[in-house]
Automatic annotation (TrEMBL):
GO terms for biological process: phosphorelay signal transduction system; regulation of DNA-templated transcription. SUPFAM superfamilies: C-terminal effector domain of the bipartite response regulators, CheY-like. The keyword Lipid metabolism does not apply. The modification 4-aspartylphosphate is found at D56. It comes from Saccharopolyspora kobensis. This is Two component transcriptional regulator, LuxR family. Coiled coil: none annotated. GO terms for molecular function: DNA binding. Residues 141-206 form the HTH luxR-type domain. It comes from the Bacteria. Residues 5-121 form the Response regulatory domain. Keywords: DNA-binding, Phosphoprotein. It holds the Pfam family Response_reg.
Length: 208
């Protein structure tokens, strides 16, 4: 994929402008349009065939959970990622249950946003580690099946985003030694021999 086409659906036009600003230095991602309501979002998705759709939790004429099916019909190949300011909003669980491909919070850094869009476009499920895990029952189930703790998953997700151990430690407020320990635990639980194999196995297990 030489270019990732991105659509932003949010009832505040400034959000679309903000995303464009955050992503302007990445030549592989192009914001092909923004929509402020459900009807225009579906038309835009059909017209632009985006690879990724950033979808606000609530629109003037619909909630995100109601948007998943029509957006998938309009753009079958698009990955739908909830883009919200609320990590524990009551509507978030319903939206995740509707089958979106991930969730990222609006205060994400440019680096995190770029990483999320890239991963979503490549078929990886992405969930901001700060999202209340009560809102993500599917992810809870997968963690339970693998035996990973929430903290091990947080470290794994950052590793999958390409961060080094020192960067992960700074991001999560841990020591480098602790990060190394979490990664070793994750490797053991997923039967991986190294970091690359760990990320590959995690992706295949639906953890990323």
């Amino acid at each position: 994929m030489t270019e990732i086409r991105l659509v932003v659906v949010d009832d505040h036009p400034v959000v679309v402008d903000g995303v464009r600003l955050l992503l302007r230095d990445d030549p592989a991602i192009r914001v092909v349009g923004g929509a402020t309501d459900a009807a225009s979002a579906v038309r835009l998705a059909a017209r632009t065939s985006p690879h990724v759709i950033l979808l606000d939790l609530r629109l003037p004429d619909a909630v995100a959970s109601e948007m998943v099916a029509p957006l998938r019909q309009a753009a079958p190949g698009a990955r739908i990622v909830v883009f919200t300011a609320y990590r524990d909003h009551a509507a978030l669980r319903t939206t995740l249950d509707a089958g979106v491909d991930g969730c990222i919070l609006k205060d994400a850094s440019a680096t995190d946003l770029v990483s999320a869009v890239r991963q979503a476009a490549s078929g990886i499920q992405i969930f901001d580690p700060r999202v209340d895990d009560r809102a993500a029952p599917r992810m809870r189930s997968r963690l339970h099946e693998t035996g990973l703790t929430q903290r091990e998953y947080d470290v794994l997700r950052h590793a999958a985003a390409g961060r080094t151990n020192p960067e992960i430690a700074e991001q999560l407020g841990l020591t480098r030694h602790t990060v190394t320990g979490y990664l070793r635990n994750a490797m053991r639980k997923l039967n991986a021999r190294n970091r690359i194999e760990l990320i590959t196995r995690a992706a295949k297990s639906g953890l990323l």
